[in-house]
Specification:
Blueprint: H1 6-11, H2 57-66, H3 74-89, E1 95-97, E2 100-102, E3 107-112, H4 119-133, E4 141-142, H5 148-153, E5 170-175, H6 178-185, H7 192-201, E6 205-206, E7 215-216, E8 220-227, H8 229-235, H9 238-243, E9 249-254, H10 268-285, E10 292-293, H11 295-309, H12 314-319, H13 323-337, E11 342-343, H14 345-367, H15 373-383, E12 389-390, H16 391-397, H17 404-416, E13 420-425, E14 432-437, H18 439-450, H19 457-461
Parallel strand pairs: 3-8, 3-9, 4-5, 5-8, 10-11
Antiparallel strand pairs: 1-2, 6-7, 12-14, 13-14
Amino acid sequence: MGGMDANARRRAGQRPPALATIPDLAAGAAEPPSAKGPGREEPPPSPLSLESPALHGLAGDLVRTIEPHTEADPAAVLIQFLVAAGNAMGHSPFFKVEATRHHTNLFAAVVGQSAKARKGTSWSWVERVLNAAEQDWAPRLQKGLSSGEGLIHAVRDESSPDDPGVTDKRLMVVESEFSSVLRRMNREGNSLSAVLREAWDSSSLQVLTKGTPQRATEAHLSVVTHITIPELRALLSATDMANGLANRFLWVFARRSKLLPEGGSLEDSSLSSLSSRLAQVLMWARDVEEVKRADAARKLWRETYESLSSDKPGLSGQATSRAEAQVVRLSLLYALLDRSKVIEEAHLSAALALMAYASDSARHIFGGAPQDPKASRILEALRGRPEGISRSELMHLFTRHVTSAELDRALGSLSDAGAAHMKVEASGGRPTERWFLGPAEAKKAKKAKYLPASASVTERES
């Protein structure tokens, strides 16, 4: 998992290796070639590799100890351990960005082939270590996300003498069937998506309902989910991508790391040592409040901030658009696991390496996902109209069976990808909004027009 040192690579202007084009085994075939255009991205060219800086400290020791004895993906073990440890630490430690306090609660989605990616196995190792480190944490591990109201109830404040509320505001939710959660979330009136977003952002949760609305303060919610690529693409709605639910998750692609027909042979003493170290960290972290960066970490943060904050195209860009905040929380976690009240350069380097893996995972997971059907239809119409199409004509394209908001989203996705652009043309009355193909799409459409029908796909796309 080595190679050039991550810091040296950054100073040389190189980025960490990306994911390979990994076959989507759950779909029964290799991932289809990526069609260039909006919502489609070229698959990362490099082999799947978790950069060594991500295996820093206690988290790295855990992964290295377990890795020879499991078929689970090291990346899946790592991210789930960080999420669980961050939950067990509680709500006291934080890193301040302007007026916002970032705590150690994270959301992660482990995405891989059903029954073959060993997603459940990867979590079992983490649960075993955490339960041994702190017995009081086990009751705070739950499943069954159904509604926003139910989530708040699990961390609710005292509401009456008959309901003293919940004292321990830590809540670790593990959903091995995230597809079921997404189905519930897509039902009209379900508040789960909104409450999850608020739980990532803030520690104060409330849903205004009739009767006695429940409230939770100082809530510390962490989430781990497991799902396959086909299920995720089918069930994660465009609304979830646009409203920011997706970018609150760290997306980690997982596959079976090796074949162990007779399983591993890890001694209990090896895990006991790790659990003991974690127990000491958790006791120490309860008294930690604000954590700050060391000078070297501040320098590295300034060097990488622009790249983290820049807009990325396509669905994977939407899914990772909270990268800077995710790195802040990851670096805070790495520091605390070292029992350090200062984020050093090594902690930030570890966070950046893991974020790079998550970003490349998102490219693989979402890069081949189908574009919004409405956007596809608009793009096809624009290819036949070099003179452009007015907004009113686009409404007629869907025989008026499209809302203005839906049309805005479809046009916005095309604009963000550079596939279409808009001009405002003066007229006798109200200015006219007219849409045209983007330069690259226009060039491809023009070239395709002069190619014979028998031309290969490669010729048409070259």
